[in-house]
Amino acid sequence: MNRWALSICFTFLLFSAIAQQEDNSHATDFAYINRLYAIPNIDADSALFYAHVLTKKPEFQFSLRTMINVVLVQSFNPFLDSVADPGEITSLQHARKFGYEFINKLAADPDSFLSSIAQPLYYWVNIIHCGSDQKKAAQLSYEFITTQWTKDDLYADCICRYTLMISNTLLAQHRSDSLARQLFSMAYDYLKNHQTTVDPDMATYMALEKRAEYRYLFSWCSHQLGDKEQAFEYSPDIIDRGHMAAYAYDKFMLTGNADHNDNLYMTDYLAFEKARQAPDDEVRDVLIKMALADTQYKDSLQLFYNTHYTDSVSFDTYWSRLINNKRKNAPGFRLQQLDGQFFDLTANKNKWVLLDFWGTWCGPCRQELPDMQRFYKEVVSTHPEKLSLLSIACADKEPGVRSFLFKNNYTFPVAMADDQIERNYHIQSYPSKILITPEGKYMVIPFGQDWIAYVKKYCDL
Question: Which of residues 129, 144, 176 is at a domain's end?
Fold first, then answer.
């Protein structure tokens, strides 16, 4: 399956999960959303009808924005021309024809909300369609600047992303290099001046999403300018990687790369530092940031440390200090498991503790539970002195959870959430996994990562 198909499948899985979390009273509204997300399997007029129904309900405005900036935009990705399978070219052409008609209808719609959220994609798509008409492309580009950059909220409609995409299109089609550079500079300067420092335990989910996207886009811009160090510094860190969906589509649209675990700017800068024979401490610090952001680099850090710091403390001690430094204390709790036993965090001192927050109503949660069962039997049960596991059912009723576990032959320990633990650990989405160190500090395992490999790496299992 090519990258286009993979990304579309990821999108549908994502929004199916969202739908499963909503109240059943919204069933009709979600039928409309699902039809919109099934584009281009409907005609543009039907899609416009569904959009009109949903725009009357403020709670679905986010879904409409997502439909445009995540689903609809993907078919216009220029990188798909080289990666789409031959048998999918016709489908891609159909998707683009539908998208072009639909986005033009939305942008011209008298409903101010619909036309406003459609305009960024409208300008980019129509600049693509200008062909050799350089004057028209320039006119649309200037209209984009005057209409979109004067909005109160540039984040909601992905204005920086579309600015960079328009710049790329002008350069790729050999039109107005000076205008392309102007657009790039506008986005670069804005992103540079709007980087934020947040406390992940206190920030809202949306603030963390915005941080992740703006850091990635600024990293990409820095890479385009040849600033390897700055591209490295703003590459997704462990906080951003917990909000990978915030920048995954920016990455796909700007680079054609759908590999969410790719760390190009980090590995690029590491190679640069080694090539210039940077001091050991500088190379080590680069590897530390890489290993803390993605555990696949822990082995590289360990090898470098053991080679260049033979007179220092052992790597295990050094790694323990790294992962506990600046992390917050895990809030204590005592929950009764469904088997009647109590899980008390204080009784699990000096070993790792994995908490899994989930619900029977959550599609992605249910999807990964077979892996959780295998992990419990093959890893946790064989290393009880090193790792404990507690699965916490949230927003559920105990009889329903018991029935679900029995039906699926799940035997890992489960407790029902009380009215404190989700709040104390700042759980904002599901599933969420928390890993607590033997020293009593805790970290959030980024959603979308291979959580089993992540835990094994951290716990040396």
Answer: 129
Asked whether residue 424 falls in the same domain as residue 359, the answer is yes
Residues 115, 52: contact at Cβ < 8 Å?
no
Rounded alpha-carbon distances, angstroms, from residue 434 to 55, 203, 373, 389, 459 = 37, 17, 17, 10, 13
The reported pTM is: 0.85
Residues 223-274 pLDDT 10s: 999 999 999 999 999 889 888 889 999 999 999 887 766 678 898 999 999 9
Q: Please give the distance of CA 158 from its chain centroid, rounded to a whole number.
A: 15
Tokens of residue 6, six digits: 């993979």
Backbone torsions φ then ψ of 74, nearest 5 degrees: -65, -35
> 3-state SS of the chain: helix, strand, coil percent to 5?
60, 10, 30
Of 75, 96, 129, the one marking the end of a domain is 129
pLDDT in tens, 128-185: 999 778 899 999 999 999 999 999 999 999 999 999 999 999 998 876 789 999 999 9
Q: CATH number of the domain that 432 lies in?
A: 3.40.30.10
Residue partners of 8: CB distance under 8 A and separation at least 6: 71, 74
Residue 227: count other Cβ atoms within 10 Å of its Cβ: 15
Domain that holds residue 123: 1-129
Q: How many domains does the chain have?
A: 3
352 shares a domain with 316 = no
The amino acid present at 288, given as its one-letter code, is: I
